[in-house]
Amino acid sequence: MADQEQSAATGSDVSTELVKRSVAMILAQTRAGAATALLMGATLGVIFVPAVGWAAFLAWYLVVALGMVVRQPYFHRLVQKHGATEHTLHRIAVVAALTSWITTLSVPLFSRALSVADLGVLTIITVGWVCLAVAVLAVQPRVYALYLAACLSTVYLGWVGHTGLRELLLIAAAMLLGAPMLIRLARIVQAQLRDAVEAAQQNAVLVQQLRESLQKQQETQRARSRFLGAASHDMRQPVQALMFLTDIFRRSSDPGRRDAMAQQIVRTGESIDGMFRHLVDFAQIDAGTMKAVVQPVDLDRLLAAAVSGFAEKCAARGLRFRMDVQESCTVSADPVLLERMLRNFLDNAFKYSLRGEIVLRVKREGDAVGVSVSDQGVGMEREDLEQACNAFFRGRSATLAEAEGIGLGLAISRHMSDLMQAGLRLESEPGQGTKVTLRLPLAAEGLAAEPPRRQRHCEALLHGRLVAVLENDRLTRDALSAWLVEAGARVAQAASLAQLQDVLRHADRPPDLMLADFRLAEGTGVEAVDAVRAEYGWVPAWIISGEPDILERGLNLPVLQKPVTPDRLLDAVRAAFPGNDVTQSGDLA
């Protein structure tokens, strides 16, 4: 339907432009035709004056001149009054044809006083004049056809009684053969004009599309510059804090002090992780690769996963958190995107609340369910509220609450809600708090998807397992290996495939699990996994990568996207070891 409407609009534009160009063309050609007619009429005096005298010649010439001179102002007044319309074009063509036909009246008027030779010359000139009229009247082929018939008939009348039947038949035959050619020529000229208009319209559309594309590209470049500037600035804040906190932790000997610093380090790390995730989400949105898999979702189960640990987090800050769920229900949504959105709403409420209560409500609204998160935080001004869902926007409330972030959370949530075809509403009053509501359609009957579960018992899962870690970044490799060792695993770590194969040969046993970075100094993690499996048989493996498009590459291996939280890594371990068998423990030299 949209294509048909666009095609109809384009056709209308072409027709309108064709009429405008036709009017402009016929006005220009009639001016040239008037000058030609006046010059040609004066020249014909050489033939007419000796034959009919000055009086008859001047009478005819004055009529021709009057028609040619008067018609041009009339044409311009017509265009000014009615515009360049189809009706205006038709009237101009009719008047132009009528005034041009007057010139051909000289043939029957003066033919009896002319010799056959003079009449032949006059006929040739007149027929040439009729042919020349194609340039004027081709924009109206039907008018030209009538004009042609009238002119040829007038010329033919001039020969009647001036020659024999045979010659009259030959003249009639020549006219009947030539007239269709001229009419066809007029139609060809009109078609060429239409083609030229269509080509011009297409070129104009292409130019406009190119201009819009260039403008969009420039806006994208500016957005990316703002993106990099905002990201680099806001990422430096928690990194700076992390540097100070780790230095205090290193120098302090007070266990209580170290424990407090450790908690702050964890919170700062979570802040950095959240920023990275927002950047990755924004990159996926920008590339158009973020997708939603809408399905029936048990809202109770998903809420339980989304609020896990949030009440304790609020209590540690002196805030209250409660849930007001009126009834159990199943909604139509993407469970992964929905949980991320709810966590983002809760995190925002936590960041912007200095006191009071945070409430998560679920309320039935006809054939939909409203899920809202409200707080009693600093709130937002009306101007800030209108821009809250714009990328990288951080209003006055962020300054008042000293909230960390890069201004992407609500922009990403808006895009996720659009992907799920859910409604998102934001309400806020300065000093009173903010309420964000997500309106989700109720799902048809079906099996609801379970939200991601957070599993513990890390020591039982990893105790005695040999985990191969292939990571070319030393800091990441050492930190990951230390976490695995702390969880009870044995670790074979290396920066390259060759080093890893050497370490595994000294281990005298195949690895139970392999964690490999995707981009290595030599080759990829996928190639490394294939090499290890070729030597030791099938080994559970996960690819760990920080590349935004890694999920779109179809690696045929499960992927963990950096930064990886301990809970996410534990989920990966759980997937690799669905049972609880424990191998013989020991240390790897």
UniProtKB/TrEMBL annotation:
Keyword Kinase listed: yes
Record-listed 4-aspartylphosphate modification sites: 517
Top-level class of the enzyme under EC nomenclature: transferase
Domain (Response regulatory): residue spans on this chain: 466-577
Coiled coil segments of this chain: none
Gene3D superfamilies, per the entry: 1.10.287.130, 3.40.50.2300, Histidine kinase-like ATPase, C-terminal domain
Enzyme Commission designation: 2.7.13.3
Keyword presence, Cell cycle: no
Domain (Histidine kinase): residue spans on this chain: 230-444
Transmembrane segments: 47-70, 91-110, 116-137, 144-162
Example GO molecular function: phosphorelay sensor kinase activity
UniProt xrefs under CDD domains: HisKA
Reaction(s) catalysed (UniProt annotation): ATP + protein L-histidine = ADP + protein N-phospho-L-histidine
Domain of life, per lineage: Bacteria
Pfam name, any one: HisKA
Keywords attached to this entry: Kinase, Membrane, Phosphoprotein, Transferase, Transmembrane, Transmembrane helix, Two-component regulatory system
Protein name: histidine kinase
Organism the protein comes from: Ramlibacter montanisoli
